[in-house]
C-alpha cells in the first residue's frame, strides 16, 4: 500500500446544517490518531473581514448582497495566503467552506459568472485538491439547525437553502474541480469512513 501522500487542501461544502463542521472535527480526530500533520480552517475566517461577515450573518449589521459577495471574496483572498503557507510547511488543510459557497449562496441576486470572476485571482493562488460536498435536503438541514438551538442566520430559510442546494449541484459540475458528493443523511461515522477511504485510495493518506 502506498503512503507517500503530499499535504492536500481539503474543502468541506454543503448547505447550512448539512454536517460539515461535524465531519471536519471527525476527520481531524482520525488524522491526529494517524499522526497526519494538519490544521482546521473555516470561511468566513476569524480574520478582520471574516469577523465583519459573521456579524452580518448574525443580522447584527445590515449589508446588501453585493457587499457580502465582495467581502466573502476579500476574506478568501487573505485566507488563501495563509493556506499556501500551511501547505508549504507540510500541513494538510481541512477547510469548512471555500469558493463553492460563494457560487452557491451569493449568486442568486448577482450573476454567477461575476461571482466566479471576482474569485478568479484567488483560484490562481490556490485550488482545492478535493472537495467533499455534503448533500442534504433543505428540510432535513433546517430540522438539524433548529435542534441545534441557535437563532437562524441570514441564509437559514427553507426556500433559500433549497435554491442554494441546487446551485451547489450545478456549480460542482461546472467548476470541474475534483469533488466527491456525500449523502449527508448517512450516520456520522459512516460518512467519516467514506472520506477516509477516498483519501487513502486517491491521495495515499495512511488512514
Ligand atoms: N449525519 C448526521 N446525522 C444526524 N445529525 C447530524 C449529522 N451530522 C451532523 N449532525 C448534527 O446536525 C447539526 C448540524 O451539523 P453541523 O454543525 O456539523 O453542520 P454544518 O454544515 O457545519 O452547519 P453550518 O453550515 O450551519 O455551520 C449538529 O447538531 C450535528 O450534531
Ligand atoms: C464562505 C461563504 C459563506 N457563506 C455563508 C454560508 C453560511 O450561511 C454562512 C457561514 O456559516 P457557517 O455556519 O460557518 O457555515 O455564510 C456565503 O454566503 N458565501 C461564502 O463565500
TrEMBL record:
Which is one Gene Ontology cellular component term of this protein?
Answer: cytoplasm
One GO term in the molecular function aspect is: ATP binding
Reaction(s) catalysed by this chain's protein: dTMP + ATP = dTDP + ADP
Q: Might you name a Gene Ontology BP term for this protein?
A: dUDP biosynthetic process
Q: Which UniProt keywords apply?
A: ATP-binding, Kinase, Nucleotide biosynthesis, Nucleotide-binding, Transferase
As recorded in UniProt, its EC number(s) are 2.7.4.9
Lineage top rank: taxon: Bacteria
**UniProt cross-references to CDD domains, sorted A to Z:** TMPK
Positions of ATP binding: 14-21
Please state every residue range assigned to the domain named Thymidylate kinase-like: 12-190
User: What top-tier enzyme class does this entry carry?
Assistant: transferase
User: NCBIfam families, alphabetically?
Assistant: DTMP_kinase (TIGR00041)
Question: Which family would the database say this protein is a member of?
Answer: Belongs to the thymidylate kinase family.
What role is this protein assigned? Phosphorylation of dTMP to form dTDP in both de novo and salvage pathways of dTTP synthesis.
Protein name as catalogued: Thymidylate kinase
What species was this sequence derived from?
A: Peptococcus niger
Q: Which gene encodes it?
A: tmk
Amino acid at each position: 500500500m502506498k503512503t507517500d501522500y503530499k499535504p492536500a487542501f481539503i474543502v468541506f461544502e454543503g448547505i447550512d446544517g448539512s454536517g460539515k463542521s461535524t465531519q471536519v472535527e471527525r476527520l481531524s480526530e482520525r488524522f491526529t490518531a494517524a499522526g497526519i500533520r494538519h490544521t482546521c480552517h473555516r470561511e468566513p475566517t476569524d480574520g478582520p473581514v471574516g469577523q465583519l461577515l459573521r456579524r452580518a450573518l448574525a443580522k447584527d449589521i445590515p449589508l446588501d448582497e453585493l457587499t457580502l459577495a465582495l467581502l466573502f471574496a476579500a476574506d478568501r483572498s487573505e485566507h488563501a495566503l495563509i493556506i499556501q503557507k500551511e501547505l508549504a510547511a507540510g500541513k494538510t488543510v481541512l477547510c469548512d467552506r471555500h469558493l463553492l459557497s460563494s457560487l452557491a449562496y451569493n449568486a442568486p441576486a448577482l450573476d454567477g459568472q461575476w461571482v466566479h470572476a471576482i474569485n478568479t485571482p484567488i483560484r490562481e493562488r490556490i485550488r482545492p485538491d478535493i472537495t467533499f460536498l455534503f448533500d442534504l435536503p433543505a428540510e432535513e438541514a433546517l430540522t438539524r439547525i433548529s435542534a441545534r438551538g441557535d437563532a437562524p442566520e441570514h441564509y437559514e430559510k427553507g426556500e433559500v437553502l433549497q435554491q442554494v442546494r441546487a446551485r451547489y449541484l450545478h456549480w460542482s459540475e461546472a467548476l470541474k474541480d475534483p469533488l466527491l458528493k456525500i449523502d449527508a443523511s448517512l450516520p456520522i461515522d459512516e460518512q467519516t469512513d467514506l472520506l477516509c477511504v477516498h483519501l487513502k485510495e486517491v491521495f495515499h493518506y495512511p488512514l
